[in-house]
Amino acid sequence: MLDLKSIYGRPNTVVLPFLRSFMDTFQVGIRNREANSSALHNIFVKAFDVEDALDIATKVIKPYDMIVKDVIRPGHEIYGLDESADADPLRLFKNDNRF
Length: 99
Prior knowledge:
Blueprint lengths: L6 E2 L8 H4 L3 E9 L8 E7 L2 H12 L4 E7 L27
Parallel strand pairs: 1-3
Antiparallel strand pairs: 2-3, 2-4
């Protein structure tokens, strides 16, 4: 299951602290591919720009059959807000038939 409290980086890579210091932490809104609600869960991704954050988040959530709905830059007025109260439960894996 995805850990919504972790900060994700590019899978299977090592980033040295100097290079990581140039990255920002983006908020990425995700939801199940087939959802009953339009509410989103948020994960945080360490990346250079919005496109990089989108690419990293897509790779992280791919095994869970989820999609990325938005990427929010640090400093935006809705950055950090959690509006997932009525979001669908997170899937455990792609073939999870509980939902």
